[in-house]
Amino acid sequence: MTDPKLPSCPVSRTASILGLRWSAEILYEFLVHETRRFQELQDTLEGIAPNTLSNRLKLFEDYGLLVRRYYEEHPPRAEYVMTETGKKLGPIFKAMRDWGICIQPKD
């Protein structure tokens, strides 16, 4: 998929997706749990607006990080599952966590 709005530099492209508000928190949830339902995310991510969560999930689907899987037909209910492409974020998040520990403010 080629999106003219995304930078051509791979580092900038990654930063443009992960740098969106709530992106890192949502994707981290999938790295920990792999499969999540909308309401589970809404309950876990305190303060996120439903439309923001919906927009991020759609974005992550568009870029192949998540897939939506229906588990109930009437009414339709879906869960989101991290793809192999999404799972490749694991080392990035580990590095972010490790680096974040190093930069904690000193008392």
TrEMBL record:
Pfam families: HxlR
Organism of derivation: Hirschia litorea
PROSITE patterns referenced in this protein's UniProt entry, alphabetically: HTH_HXLR (PS51118)
Positions of the HTH hxlR-type domain: 9-107
Superkingdom of this protein's organism: Bacteria
The keyword Transcription appears for this protein: yes
Keyword terms: DNA-binding, Transcription, Transcription regulation
Name of the protein in its database record: Winged helix-turn-helix transcriptional regulator
